[in-house]
Amino acid sequence: MHNFETEIRRDQPALPPIKITEDESRRLSSLANSTMDLFPRVAQFLARELERASVAAENDLRGVVRMGSKVTYRDDGTGASREIVLVYPHEANIELNRISILTPVGAALIGLSEGQRIEFETPDKRTRGLTVLAVSE
């Protein structure tokens, strides 16, 4: 079975390295675990991202997407840029461009640095690519 998984993963693009603080990692892991029944696909995606993230010190995260960060990203499929703030679910507000970490885009962006690109599967099974253009607090 391990070989089969390796075969599948070989076709997927390599995921970019991501960084997160220990505190955010703990909070987001708890959030992913507590919402696994309600939002299984995005909670599993978030949990996988957190597992592969390296833990970094607070002062080593300049230009890295964190909770509360203002992020400008490009949708690589359409070429359109968008500026959002990454927030916890209870703070989400689409009209104010406050995007929940419990969305595929939010889970994909966490921990990325300016210039990094990630591809992920959308709920309708399409592959979507995003590139982080700018990050600010």
TrEMBL record:
Which InterPro entries does the entry mention? Answer: GreA/GreB_C_sf, Rnk_N, Tscrpt_elong_fac_GreA/B_C, Tscrpt_elong_fac_GreA/B_fam
State the coiled-coil residue ranges.
Answer: none
One function term, GO molecular function aspect: kinase activity
Give one GO biological process term: regulation of DNA-templated transcription elongation
Domain Regulator of nucleoside diphosphate kinase N-terminal positions: 16-55
Q: Which residues form the Transcription elongation factor GreA/GreB C-terminal domain?
A: 63-136
Q: Could you tell me which Gene3D superfamilies the record lists for this protein?
A: Transcription elongation factor, GreA/GreB, C-terminal domain (3.10.50.30)
What are the entry keywords?
Answer: Kinase, Transferase
The record's PANTHER family line, in alphabetical order, gives:
REGULATOR OF NUCLEOSIDE DIPHOSPHATE KINASE (PTHR30437:SF5), TRANSCRIPTION ELONGATION FACTOR GREA (PTHR30437)
**Name of the protein in question:** Regulator of nucleoside diphosphate kinase
What species is this protein from?
Bradyrhizobium shewense
